[in-house]
Design a protein that fits this description.
Distance between the termini: 73 Å
Largest sheet: 2 strands, antiparallel
Strand content: 5-15%
Radius of gyration: 26 Å
Number of strands: 6
Shape: elongated
Number of helices: 8
Order of helices and strands: HHHEEEEHEHHHHE
Strand order of the largest sheet: 1-2
Helix content: 25-40%
Structural class: mainly alpha
């Protein structure tokens, strides 16, 4: 029979209980984001679980980058003087160049084929003011960190303030084409209004940029 420990002589069993009772408290689990669904954007409120404001801002931009690096957007933000097309970012057919004002060259201007709306039968995409983004706003083969810094830099973003950037994403008709591409093209995730709300939340939390990971987006 095992001896019964007394208060004066607690014995080894009481010592084990004491060690367990005084052990290190369980660590609080780190907050986790709900995974994004394919074709959808998480709302700004989904990032409220991140208590650190800077971390929340970086996470918001990472969510926005799912739109920026989507082929519907990246095709017109090439790292060069020619647009790309389709989901694999293929060279534009017919071969065209950006030209002096990012709208093509004489005889092959963007507006020669791309009208203000999608041409259903011809399968040619269209939206008002169809043109390439400036060279300084190339996103293909750039990382999330690099694109974030570009967007914030007034010397590269068309001298826009962050509020103007928010309005551009939320309301510009050419940007909006990314969610209404016509034919059998897959749209950008979410909606234009949702993307605009994410950009607004990113700005409101300090417009922090993700760390440089060296991984290019929009480079497929």
């Amino acid at each position: 029979m095992l001896p019964v420990p007394s208060l004066r002589h607690p014995g080894p069993f009481a010592f084990v209980v004491l060690v367990v009772a005084c052990g290190t408290p369980a660590a609080t689990p780190a907050p986790t984001l709900v995974p994004a669904e394919a074709g959808a954007l998480r709302p700004p409120s989904a990032f409220d679980v991140l208590p650190d404001r800077a971390a929340r801002s970086r996470a918001l931009f990472t969510e926005v980058s799912r739109v920026l690096f989507n082929p519907r957007c990246a095709n017109c933000h090439p790292d060069g003087d020619a647009p790309t097309q389709r989901d694999a970012l293929e060279r534009h057919d017919p071969p065209v160049l950006r030209g002096e004002h990012d709208q093509g060259i004489p005889g092959l201007m963007c507006g020669s084929c791309h009208q203000d709306t999608n041409a259903t039968l011809a399968r040619v995409p269209g939206a008002p003011k169809w043109e390439l983004a400036p060279r300084a706003m190339a996103w293909q083969r750039h990382s999330k960190h690099q694109v974030c810094e570009q967007i914030k830099d007034g010397n590269r973003n068309g001298h826009r303030s962050l509020d103007a950037i928010t309005d551009h994403v939320a309301h510009d008709p050419l940007v909006g084409w990314g969610w209404h591409p016509g034919a059998d093209r897959l749209p950008a995730p979410g909606t234009q209004a949702e993307a605009g709300a994410l950009v607004a939340a990113w700005v409101a939390t300090g417009a922090e940029c993700p760390a440089e990971d060296g991984v290019p987006g929009g480079s497929r």
